[in-house]
Amino acid sequence: MSMTQLIIPVQLAVILLVVSVTRVSASEEVGRLFKGHCFDCHDDVSQEGNFQIDQLSTKSVTHDSAKTWSKILRKLEAGTMPPPMQERPPTKDVASVIEWTKRALADESSNRHGKGGSLTRRLNRLEYENTVHDLLGVDVPLKNLLPEDDFQDGFNTSAEALRVSPNAVNRMKSVLGV
Ligand code: HEC
Protein backbone atom coordinates (compact mmCIF):
# COMPACT_ATOMS: atom_id res chain seq x y z
CA MET A 1 0.00 0.00 0.00
CA SER A 2 1.42 3.39 -0.93
CA MET A 3 1.63 6.25 1.56
CA THR A 4 -1.34 8.10 0.04
CA GLN A 5 -3.41 4.95 0.05
CA LEU A 6 -2.63 4.54 3.71
CA ILE A 7 -3.62 8.07 4.67
CA ILE A 8 -7.19 7.68 3.46
CA PRO A 9 -8.14 4.71 5.65
CA VAL A 10 -6.67 6.57 8.60
CA GLN A 11 -8.77 9.63 7.77
CA LEU A 12 -11.86 7.47 7.46
CA ALA A 13 -11.13 5.86 10.80
CA VAL A 14 -10.90 9.33 12.32
CA ILE A 15 -14.26 10.32 10.82
CA LEU A 16 -15.91 7.21 12.22
CA LEU A 17 -14.35 7.83 15.61
CA VAL A 18 -15.56 11.43 15.68
CA VAL A 19 -19.07 10.31 14.75
CA SER A 20 -19.20 7.67 17.48
CA VAL A 21 -17.70 9.97 20.10
CA THR A 22 -20.28 12.63 19.22
CA ARG A 23 -23.03 10.07 19.83
CA VAL A 24 -21.65 9.09 23.22
CA SER A 25 -21.30 12.66 24.39
CA ALA A 26 -24.87 13.47 23.29
CA SER A 27 -26.08 10.79 25.65
CA GLU A 28 -23.72 12.01 28.37
CA GLU A 29 -25.06 15.52 27.92
CA VAL A 30 -28.54 14.22 28.67
CA GLY A 31 -27.28 12.62 31.86
CA ARG A 32 -25.51 15.81 32.86
CA LEU A 33 -28.58 17.98 32.37
CA PHE A 34 -30.71 15.60 34.40
CA LYS A 35 -28.15 15.39 37.20
CA GLY A 36 -27.68 19.14 37.38
CA HIS A 37 -31.26 20.27 36.95
CA CYS A 38 -33.77 17.45 37.44
CA PHE A 39 -32.67 14.86 40.00
CA ASP A 40 -33.18 17.26 42.92
CA CYS A 41 -36.88 16.79 42.39
CA HIS A 42 -37.13 13.62 40.34
CA ASP A 43 -34.91 11.05 42.03
CA ASP A 44 -36.08 8.15 44.16
CA VAL A 45 -36.27 10.39 47.26
CA SER A 46 -38.18 13.37 45.83
CA GLN A 47 -40.31 12.05 42.98
CA GLU A 48 -42.05 15.40 42.56
CA GLY A 49 -45.23 15.00 40.56
CA ASN A 50 -44.80 11.28 41.15
CA PHE A 51 -42.15 11.36 38.46
CA GLN A 52 -38.74 9.71 38.81
CA ILE A 53 -36.01 9.78 36.19
CA ASP A 54 -32.75 8.98 38.00
CA GLN A 55 -33.00 5.35 36.90
CA LEU A 56 -33.81 6.25 33.32
CA SER A 57 -31.23 5.02 30.83
CA THR A 58 -29.87 7.82 28.66
CA LYS A 59 -28.31 5.40 26.18
CA SER A 60 -31.44 5.06 24.09
CA VAL A 61 -35.21 5.22 24.26
CA THR A 62 -36.92 1.85 24.67
CA HIS A 63 -40.49 0.77 24.23
CA ASP A 64 -40.95 0.98 28.01
CA SER A 65 -39.37 4.39 28.43
CA ALA A 66 -40.88 6.10 25.37
CA LYS A 67 -43.78 7.56 27.33
CA THR A 68 -41.50 9.01 29.98
CA TRP A 69 -39.23 10.53 27.32
CA SER A 70 -42.22 12.06 25.53
CA LYS A 71 -43.24 13.75 28.76
CA ILE A 72 -39.70 15.04 29.27
CA LEU A 73 -39.56 16.30 25.69
CA ARG A 74 -42.83 18.17 26.11
CA LYS A 75 -41.63 19.87 29.32
CA LEU A 76 -38.27 20.81 27.84
CA GLU A 77 -39.79 22.20 24.66
CA ALA A 78 -42.31 24.19 26.64
CA GLY A 79 -39.52 25.37 28.94
CA THR A 80 -41.61 24.48 31.99
CA MET A 81 -39.04 22.09 33.52
CA PRO A 82 -37.10 22.84 35.62
CA PRO A 83 -39.90 24.97 37.12
CA PRO A 84 -39.73 28.75 36.65
CA MET A 85 -38.09 29.68 39.97
CA GLN A 86 -35.20 27.23 39.52
CA GLU A 87 -31.79 27.94 38.04
CA ARG A 88 -32.06 27.77 34.23
CA PRO A 89 -29.93 25.21 32.46
CA PRO A 90 -27.92 26.63 29.51
CA THR A 91 -30.18 27.02 26.46
CA LYS A 92 -27.62 25.21 24.31
CA ASP A 93 -27.69 22.15 26.58
CA VAL A 94 -31.46 22.03 26.61
CA ALA A 95 -31.51 22.33 22.82
CA SER A 96 -29.16 19.42 22.34
CA VAL A 97 -31.06 17.26 24.82
CA ILE A 98 -34.27 18.08 22.95
CA GLU A 99 -32.59 17.08 19.70
CA TRP A 100 -31.23 13.84 21.17
CA THR A 101 -34.61 12.95 22.64
CA LYS A 102 -36.44 13.56 19.38
CA ARG A 103 -34.03 11.39 17.47
CA ALA A 104 -34.04 8.62 20.06
CA LEU A 105 -37.85 8.64 20.13
CA ALA A 106 -37.95 8.48 16.33
CA ASP A 107 -35.50 5.56 16.38
CA GLU A 108 -37.63 3.74 18.93
CA SER A 109 -40.77 4.32 16.93
CA SER A 110 -39.24 3.05 13.69
CA ASN A 111 -37.95 0.00 15.55
CA ARG A 112 -41.43 -0.67 16.79
CA HIS A 113 -42.89 -0.34 13.34
CA GLY A 114 -40.54 -2.98 12.08
CA LYS A 115 -38.41 -0.76 9.92
CA GLY A 116 -35.33 -2.76 10.72
CA GLY A 117 -33.96 -0.92 13.66
CA SER A 118 -32.01 2.26 13.92
CA LEU A 119 -30.94 3.15 10.42
CA THR A 120 -27.37 3.87 9.69
CA ARG A 121 -27.40 6.93 7.58
CA ARG A 122 -24.58 7.26 5.12
CA LEU A 123 -23.65 10.49 3.41
CA ASN A 124 -25.28 10.94 0.04
CA ARG A 125 -23.04 11.17 -3.01
CA LEU A 126 -22.62 14.91 -2.97
CA GLU A 127 -22.05 15.01 0.78
CA TYR A 128 -19.49 12.25 0.45
CA GLU A 129 -17.67 14.07 -2.32
CA ASN A 130 -17.65 17.30 -0.32
CA THR A 131 -16.43 15.53 2.80
CA VAL A 132 -13.57 13.89 0.97
CA HIS A 133 -12.68 17.22 -0.62
CA ASP A 134 -12.73 19.02 2.70
CA LEU A 135 -10.78 16.39 4.56
CA LEU A 136 -8.23 15.43 2.00
CA GLY A 137 -8.06 18.57 -0.07
CA VAL A 138 -8.40 16.50 -3.23
CA ASP A 139 -10.65 17.82 -5.92
CA VAL A 140 -11.70 14.83 -7.95
CA PRO A 141 -15.31 14.50 -9.05
CA LEU A 142 -16.19 11.40 -7.03
CA LYS A 143 -19.93 11.91 -7.12
CA ASN A 144 -20.46 10.18 -10.44
CA LEU A 145 -18.37 7.19 -9.48
CA LEU A 146 -20.59 6.46 -6.50
CA PRO A 147 -23.87 4.54 -6.45
CA GLU A 148 -27.04 6.49 -7.13
CA ASP A 149 -28.80 7.76 -4.03
CA ASP A 150 -32.30 6.49 -3.51
CA PHE A 151 -34.82 9.22 -3.05
CA GLN A 152 -37.33 8.92 -0.26
CA ASP A 153 -40.19 11.40 -0.25
CA GLY A 154 -37.99 13.66 -2.34
CA PHE A 155 -35.20 13.85 0.23
CA ASN A 156 -31.94 12.14 -0.49
CA THR A 157 -30.60 12.89 2.99
CA SER A 158 -33.20 10.88 4.93
CA ALA A 159 -31.87 7.84 6.75
CA GLU A 160 -34.59 5.76 5.16
CA ALA A 161 -33.26 6.49 1.69
CA LEU A 162 -29.66 6.22 2.76
CA ARG A 163 -29.53 2.68 4.01
CA VAL A 164 -26.03 1.37 3.59
CA SER A 165 -26.01 -1.51 1.18
CA PRO A 166 -22.86 -3.63 1.00
CA ASN A 167 -22.61 -2.58 -2.62
CA ALA A 168 -22.64 1.11 -1.70
CA VAL A 169 -19.91 0.55 0.87
CA ASN A 170 -17.76 -1.30 -1.63
CA ARG A 171 -18.20 1.40 -4.24
CA MET A 172 -17.30 4.12 -1.74
CA LYS A 173 -14.25 2.19 -0.63
CA SER A 174 -13.07 1.45 -4.14
CA VAL A 175 -13.37 5.11 -5.07
CA LEU A 176 -11.00 5.86 -2.21
CA GLY A 177 -8.72 3.00 -3.12
CA VAL A 178 -9.19 1.47 0.33
C1 HEC B 1 -37.68 22.15 41.92
C2 HEC B 1 -38.21 20.88 41.59
C3 HEC B 1 -38.19 20.38 40.18
C4 HEC B 1 -37.14 20.34 39.30
C5 HEC B 1 -35.73 20.86 39.49
C6 HEC B 1 -37.64 19.68 38.10
N1 HEC B 1 -38.94 19.34 38.26
FE1 HEC B 1 -40.10 18.31 36.95
N2 HEC B 1 -41.69 18.47 38.23
C7 HEC B 1 -41.68 19.09 39.46
C8 HEC B 1 -43.02 19.07 40.00
C9 HEC B 1 -43.43 19.68 41.35
C10 HEC B 1 -43.83 18.41 39.07
C11 HEC B 1 -45.34 18.13 39.17
C12 HEC B 1 -46.14 19.32 38.73
C13 HEC B 1 -46.06 19.59 37.28
O1 HEC B 1 -46.29 18.69 36.45
O2 HEC B 1 -45.74 20.73 36.93
C14 HEC B 1 -42.96 18.04 37.96
C15 HEC B 1 -43.38 17.37 36.86
C16 HEC B 1 -42.56 16.98 35.80
C17 HEC B 1 -43.01 16.22 34.66
C18 HEC B 1 -44.42 15.72 34.39
C19 HEC B 1 -44.58 14.32 34.91
C20 HEC B 1 -45.88 13.71 34.48
O3 HEC B 1 -46.08 12.52 34.79
O4 HEC B 1 -46.68 14.37 33.83
C21 HEC B 1 -41.93 16.04 33.87
C22 HEC B 1 -41.89 15.31 32.54
C23 HEC B 1 -40.80 16.68 34.50
N3 HEC B 1 -41.22 17.25 35.69
C24 HEC B 1 -39.54 16.73 33.98
C25 HEC B 1 -38.49 17.43 34.55
C26 HEC B 1 -37.21 17.55 33.95
C27 HEC B 1 -36.80 16.92 32.63
C28 HEC B 1 -36.45 18.33 34.78
C29 HEC B 1 -35.05 18.80 34.56
C30 HEC B 1 -34.76 19.45 33.29
C31 HEC B 1 -37.28 18.68 35.90
N4 HEC B 1 -38.52 18.12 35.72
C32 HEC B 1 -36.87 19.45 36.99
C33 HEC B 1 -40.58 19.64 40.07
C34 HEC B 1 -39.33 19.77 39.50
TrEMBL record:
GO molecular-function term, one example from the UniProt record: electron transfer activity
Superkingdom assignment: Bacteria
Family matches, as InterPro entries: Cyt_c-like_dom_sf (IPR036909), Cyt_c_Planctomycete-type (IPR011429), DUF1587 (IPR013036)
Residues in Cytochrome C Planctomycete-type domain copies: 38-84
Pfam families per UniProt: PSCyt1, PSD3
Domain DUF1587: 121-171
Protein name: Planctomycete cytochrome C
Naturally occurring in which organism (per UniProt): Thalassoglobus neptunius
